[in-house]
Automatic annotation (TrEMBL), chains A, B:
Identification of the protein by name: Phosphoribosylformylglycinamidine synthase subunit PurS
Pfam families: PurS (PF02700)
Reactions the enzyme catalyzes: N(2)-formyl-N(1)-(5-phospho-beta-D-ribosyl)glycinamide + L-glutamine + ATP + H2O = 2-formamido-N(1)-(5-O-phospho-beta-D-ribosyl)acetamidine + L-glutamate + ADP + phosphate + H(+)
Organism: Actinophytocola algeriensis
GO molecular function terms noted in the UniProt entry: ATP binding; phosphoribosylformylglycinamidine synthase activity
Leading EC class: ligase
Length: 78, 78
């Protein structure tokens, strides 16, 4: 059994209104020095050792992200 | 300038219907060996070097997560 993390983020050229809302709110709330915020999704999967990286990439492309507007990173935790 | 990542996940005792939906769908779609999926949020912040860890924790608790039902991890990328 391994724990796998998949982080899904909007591509850099895609607007991110949720992240923008946080970035705009922070100075009004007294927090300065944060110049940009982007929001994405974070998945944690419990994965059998038999599942290879290619299968994980297929799952990330097909079911965890929208490859037209999002990028993803797959990371195996120890 | 530093890049800071904040991962926000539902606490272990909180049901996660989105993650559950993915976990239940994968075997039907031909992907076996994934025993659990949990879905959370992933934030990437561009942060001034003057912003300390305490401030980042305040931002994560107050604006990026709901501490009643979610845990968060703050990570500074190199």
């Amino acid at each position: 059994m391994a724990r796998v993390v998949v982080d899904v983020m909007p591509k850099p050229e895609i607007l991110d209104p949720q992240g923008q809302a946080v970035a705009n709110a922070l100075p009004r709330l007294g927090f300065t020095g944060i110049s940009d915020v982007r929001q994405g999704k974070h998945f944690e999967l419990e994965v059998d050792d038999s599942v290879d990286d290619e299968t994980l990439a297929k799952i990330a492309i097909g079911f965890l992200s929208n490859p037209v507007i999002e990028d993803f990173v797959v990371r195996r935790l120890s």
